[in-house]
Structures are given as structure tokens and as C-alpha cells.
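User: I need a structural model of Multidrug efflux pump from Marinospirillum alkaliphilum DSM 21637 for a docking pre-check later this week. Nothing fancy, just the predicted C-alpha cells so I can convert them on my end. Input:
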Amino acid sequence: MKLSETAVRRPVFALVISLLLLTFGLMAWQQLPLRQYPDVTRPEVVVMTSYTGASAEVVELQITNPIEDQLSGIEGIRTIQSNSARGISRIVITFSERRDLDNAANDVREAVARVMRQLPDDADTPLVMKRSATEEAILYIILGSTRMTGLELTDYARRTLQERLSLVSGVSNVLLLGAQDQVMRVELDPDALNARQLTVNDIISTLRQENLELRAGRLQGPQRTLQIQISRDYNRLEDFQRLVLRSDGQQTIRLGDVAQISTGARNTDQVFRSNGRNVVGLAIEPISTANPLDVIAAVKQELDHFRPFLPDGADLDTTFDASIFIQSAINEVYFTLGLAMLLVVLVIFIFLGTPRATLIPAITVPVSLIAAFIGIALFGFSINLMTLLALVLAIGLVVDDAIVVLENIHRHLDEGKPPLLAAWTGIREVGFAVIATTTVLIATFVPIIFLEGTAGQFFREYALTLAAAVAFSSLIALTLTPVLCSKLLKAHSSGERQRLMHRLLNWLEKHYRRLLEVGLNHRWLALLVLILALSGTGWGFSQLPRAYAPQEDQGSIFIFVRGQEGASAARMRDSMMQVEERLLPLLDGPNLSNITLQAPGFSTQGDNSGFLILSLKPWNQRPDDAFTVLADIRRLMADIPDVVIIPRVRSALTGGGGAPVRFVLGGSSYEELQEWAGIMMRAAADNPGLVDMDTDFNETQPQVRARIDRERAALLGVSAQRMGETLEVMLGGRAITRFEERGREYDVWLVGQPRALQELDDLGKLLIRSDQGGQLIRLDNLVSFEEVGETPRLPHYNRNRAITLSASLAEGYSLGEALDYLDALAAELLPPYALIDYRGESLDYRTSSAAIEIIFLMALVIVFLVLAAQFESFVHPFVVLLTVPLGLAGAMLGLWWTGETINIYTQLAMIMLIGLSAKNGILIVEFANQLRDQGLEFRAAILEASRRRLRPILMTAATTLIGTLPLLLATGAGSESRQAIGLVVFSGVALATLLTLLVVPLTYNLLARHTGSPETVSRLLEQQQNHQSPRQ
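Assistant: Understood. Predicted C-alpha cells for Multidrug efflux pump:
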């Protein structure tokens, strides 16, 4: 190896290379952003179209369907989801991760523009919005007070906090939660209006005409010009009470005569509470590319500036804080990284017995890991849980190169060679093996780059970081390691501990050689071992439970609450108070630290929804994990009437609190879909593994349908718009004009008095003014009212009418088992033309499972071809890769023993096992080829190569196992994913190492007898050239 020879000859040159890598690595580490996970952006474009007054069926037919038809041809669409509701269509187009969001949004705009002529004339222009699917709140702030009212808290939060926090770098949006927006409430009394012959439209017209602020022009004189402004005089409560509605010279009717006027909240039913008290909340949403830790730190710093200046009695605090989990998980990984390095160095010391020899890998391993940050920076990645996890696993890989070189040089030193010659000879012997193992490991990770979807974005950084660490470790092993060996290793008498280790290793080598001699006489024994390993691997893949990702305790629990269809916000608030009453005693327990409640839920939910976040105490301060607390809460909430309560933990990879099971039924009619959903729900109720089952469709929401007698209305000169405006104001309320207070404008909210409008008959008494002579007509002469059940939402999925069944998983029941069960149930109970699909985590699981299997095969093929090129043989790579089933069998044994699932983490660890299992086979096969080249007989070469490679194989296996042990035994934030990878690597490497020592020599003996080394052809060519030379 010319590079290694140059390094031994020019030690300063080798040292400078390592110092440069160390310097640039440290610089990159300081400048790299810190995140929880890789930057996972799933581009989404939302198309919103308003069609006021149209039913859900009309919106679906005239708005949603035409737009979806135009969108279907756009490149890179992953899914199209839509909801058609009364008066609005909402379509969400999710694109593949490789699609540029700006270009995708432009394509959507063009498609919408093409369909505009097909939409109803009175529908609003569709609004096209870009968003990243990862946008969600990372911090909840609560503002409370013992003295301030809800109105005052809202005003302070909006004026001071929201405006300032929205300017913090990295903040995308600041949502105000539980806000009681101040308005001038004008509550109309229908009886007072009727008695004075006034209508709602009269009030609206008067307010709009009188409460104006206009420029009336300017007065221009010889010396100066004056602007004339008509001022708005209605800003105080008394001003509106005195507003004249009508005056005939004898009687003046004012607004205060027909309405109760007060300054108050627009919506008194909305509530946001923290630990049992009413507060106002602010939710911080970051830009998708921002570092959440930096954003949260900057927001908290801003809050610290506010606290000294808060009004008397006010307090400011945070509840849900994503940075707690992120920072805790990253700290845990850093601790695991340091512990793994310490344990690896300790193992090397035990094997080699001298501090000088131990110092060499203690230097080269940190240099390799720090140099890996150069690769992370060049690839544009961040320091996150995946890249740090890759570095933890890299410890066992990068130390292998150093050990292989160090052990071989140490052996030559023990044979009496001087240090410089021992370094020269030793690196020449194992240089090819180092390059071969490095190439194989990198080739193993290459296919992961092509993994699509969320999992692909997550693990691309993981794979490339590992590849960078292995590549740099190989460079350092070929340059710095032999230099350090030539300078630090000395021939010396062995101490008692070292002599004991040598005696133990010599004893192992002796008995291992004897075992091989017996095995070589029973060459088919290797086939039996391989058949058993393949059978165990096949059994594991077919029988072990499967999931998308291991469930993680992220320190919080989300609770979704849904009331009966049509339930009012006030009724939902009462139900949420019952839920809170059950939960509040848990604050005195050991697990819970905060309860945040919101009702109704977020904007995409209705009045009959509620939402809670339970923040748990730090992991080391509570006895139970989130899943135990979740089970307790589920039991605690079981008997609360009139609501469906669904508690969930946050998803590990996809984020949010969505159901892991989301099974989509598609068809042509909702009647048939609802029938199918009912059949599936009733059958699935017998499966204890599925809990909290629900659907996203309900057609029984009570509605009041107003039917206008249009002929009579036209005859009497009353427009539908005027009747609709009257009902809207009296039943829901409407902002008519504005008033000013303390430099800020607020709405004047016109609404009917709730106590006066409680029955359908009360609506009929309302008066409408005719255009023909101003005649007053009762509403019940023009409109009939009836209570009906109306479909609130009509969902589509991938352009088909669809109903989604959602469910959580009971403990011990995997996502793969749930989806397989539902698939089988649908095949058995539903007609063959029923469409089956998946959403959310279920879709990611299905797509990633198929992709991982293809990537595993790709990795095997690539490694085989790389080895074939290096060994100049197709037989030798086959022998080496026969170690892979051994590692997989060990992985399956570990998964079965612990009850862990086959998931995206364990599957990627299995891909790693291709390289980890193969490297021991490479050491044996490559050295056997060298010995055969030196003239040793075939059987003797096998025995000698296996014996002389036993020590480095045991040392590298021990360091890999010890380096993985902190992952296997991890606790705290995010430990579940680390344990999953650590389990597969530990159990796979352990079994593969034990069996490789037998299987590789036996299969080499069986298959490679008539093969040669990579130099065979070169020697033959040289012989033929020499043979021809004398003739010439």
C-alpha cells in the first residue's frame, strides 16, 4: 500500500493529515446546527375554496371533484386528501419529499386556474397555500393572572407577547389559544325590534352609515390648506347606546332601546386552562428549516425580558416544551458516545495489556469520529439524534481498522522485529483487508440513500454519517496508526496480566485449530449450520411482530376528546371540565407535571372537540413510563358520558398524536362505505389489540334547514340575501363595524339575545322589510324550518369517496399485526370492489417495509460485486457473504427473546449486519489467499489463516459488542430507538462471530479449492512474459 508506506517513511506527513482532519472536524462541529431529527419536509399544498351557503354535497360535486380531477396529473403527488363541508372545500396535496415545494405550488395554481371556469360563479376564488407537513407547535406558553380578566389577558398577550414573539428568528407563527377577543356586543331583543317596527337589516344599515371615518376633502386658502375629516364618534359604550335608529320629531328610537350593549368577549364558550385555572396560551410554530432548540431558547430569552414588566398579579410560564425531550435525548446520546468509547478502550487494554498499545486506538478513534463531522457538514446535515446515533455505532466500526493494524504490527513486534520494520511489514499485510472491509461497509450503506419517504429522509443522514466515519477511520488506520505503532510500541518483557491474556489467547487458538481440523473432516457441517441459520431468519421475518417504529416515551401525552355530533361549545366545555376534574389529582402523583386543556379543539375541528396535553415529569424523576401512564388514563376516563376520549403518545418518527392505525375504505357511495365501516368496526371490536377505534365520518349531525318559499318572497319583494343576513346575525353573530380603544380597533359584534332565541318558533317572529313600500313581513311567512340530519363532512382520499378507520394499539400488539388483521377482515367481509388504502403512519409502514426489503437485496448485490472486484473472484465473495444469514439469525433470536418488533430501526440495523458479519470473513479469506500465494498448502493455509486471525476477530467483535452495549442498555429520553438498533447489532454480531469462525473456513475449504488470489492473473502474466523474453 503506497499510502501506508509513505506514512511510515514520512511520519510528520501522516500526523499533519490527522491534525488537519481534527481541526476541520472541530470547526464543522462548532458550526453545525443542532436538531432533534433530520430536516424532514414533506411538501404539502392546500387548496381552500369557500362557497357560502352550499351544503357539503354541493361543495363536493361542484368544487372538490372538478379541482381534484385537474390536480391528478401533477408530477410527484403522493396523496390527495380532501374534505367537503358546508360552505367550504379543503384539499391537501402531499408530494414526495424530492419535489420542490415552490414548483409544486405553481403546478397546483396552474391546475386550479384551468378549472376556474367549471366552478360556480358565486364561489370564492380558490386559495392555494404552501406548507410543510412538519409544522407543529414546539412550545406552549401560558399567561395567567390573579387580577386580570380574560379580556385583559388576551389584550396584553396580543398587543405585547404575540407581536414580539413573532419577530423571533425561526418563528413561523404564534397562535393565540383561549383568546377572548374584545368586542362591543350588541345583543338584539327580537321583541323590542318588533314592537318598534325595526328589522335586523335596519340596525346593520344604520351602524354602517353612521359609524364612519371619512375624508371629506380639503379647504384650500391663500395661506394654508386644511384637510377635512369626518370623525368616527362611536367608540364608547354610551355612544352606541345613544345611536339614533329612527326619529320622527316626536319619538326617537336609539340602539340602547332594542339591544343590550356591553363590552365583552366575542365567544364566551372557548376555554384554555392550565392546571385547573383559566389562562391564555401562545403556541410557537417554527419554520420547517429552523433549529427548534435555538428557536425555543430565543423565545424563552424573550420571555425572561417580559417577566419583570408583567402587570401586577400576572405570571408567565411554559407547559409543553419540545426542547426538553430533544436536549435530553441528545445528552443521552452524547453520554452513550462517551461511555462506548471508554468501554472500547478498556477492552483493548484487556486484550493488549499495555498502556502504550491502548493509547493508539484511544487517539485514532476520536480523530475518526471528529473527522466524520466534516462529512456531515459537506452533506448539509445537522447534529441530530440520527447522526449522533450513527457515531455511537461507528465506534465499534472505526476501532476495528485500528485493531486489525495494531494487532498485526504487535504480532510482528513479538516476533522480534524492531518497531519501524514491524509497522512497515504489518501494514503491508493487512492494508488490503482494511480497504476491503471499509469498502464493504460503505457499500452496505449506499442503498439506504435511495430509501424514499419519511424514513428515507431520517436514515439518509444516518447512513452517510456512518459511511463518512468508516471512510475517515480507514484513512487514519492506513496512515496515523502505523506511525503511532512505530513510535509508541516497544519490545519489552510482558507483565503478569499480559502473560495471562497471552496464555488465554494461545489456549483459544490451540483448541480453535483442533476444532477446525475436526470440522474440515466434516465439511458438510457448515451447510447444516447455514440451513439452520436461514431457517431461523425466515421464521423470524414471517412470525415476529412488525411496526413502523418503536414507541417512544417523549415526555408528553395527547388526549383528543370528541362530543356527540351537534353538541354545542358550551356543552363541550362542561364535558372537558369533567375530564379535567378526573385528571387534576394526578398532579399530586409522581408522574404528571402539567395539564393543558383547550376547548373547542383547533380550527380544523368543530365545536364538539377538545384537546389536552399532559406534560410528564423528567424521565429520571418519575417511576412510570408514558405508556403506563397512558393505560392508567384510559381506565380513568372510561366512564365519562357523552364523549369519546382518545389518549395517545406522540409518534416517534411522524410526530403529532395521530392514530398509528389508519385504514382507509374507498368506494362510490357514502351509504355503502358507512355500511362497510360498521361491519369492520363490529368485527374488530372482538380484537383486544385494537383500542379507541373511531371513524372520520358521521352523517347524523343535527341541522336546521330553512326552506324559502321563493315565489312568495319574490312577490313580496324580499331577497334571500336579506333573510340569510337576518338569521346569521341573530343566531351566530356578525362583525358590522369597528370602534377604537387605546389605539387599537375592535369589532362591533351584532348578535341576537340568546335567551330570546331558543326554539324554532322564535325564529318565525323575526321581521323582514320588503323592498315594496317597506312592508314588514314575519319570517315564518316566507321560510319554513325543519330539523334534519346532515352530513357535516364528505372526505375523499386519492380522489375516491373514503372513510378512514383509526385505532390505537394495545400493549404488545404491533402495527403490522393490526394492518394484516384488518386486511384479512376486509377480504373476508367486504365485496371485492372495495378499495383499501392507508394513511399516516400506516401508509409509511407499508411503503417503507417494501422499500427496506429491496434495499437489503441491493446492499447484498452491491457488497457481492465490490468484493468480487477486490478478490478477483466470484467464489470468495460468496464465501464471505455466507456469514450474513448467521448475523440475521442472531438478530432474530434477540428480537424474539426481548419481544421487540421488526421496525424501521431494526431493519436498518440488519442492513448494517451485512457489513459487520462480512468483515470477519474478509479477514480470514484474504489472509488465506496471502498464505497460499506464499506457497502454503490449501488446508494448511486455511488452518493458519483462521488461527492467526482469531485474535483480531475476537478483539473487533468484543469492541463492537461493548461499544453497542450502552445502546442496548440505554434509558431516558429516546432510549427505545437506541435499544432497538443496539439489540440487533449486539445479538447479530455475537452469533455471527461465533459461527463465522467455523462456517467461513469450512465453506472456503468446500468451495475455494480451485480458486486463486487477486494476484494470480498478474503472476501468470508475469510468468508468460518471462517465458517469452529468452526467445526474443
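Before docking, keep this in mind: The first strand starts at residue 43 and ends at 50.
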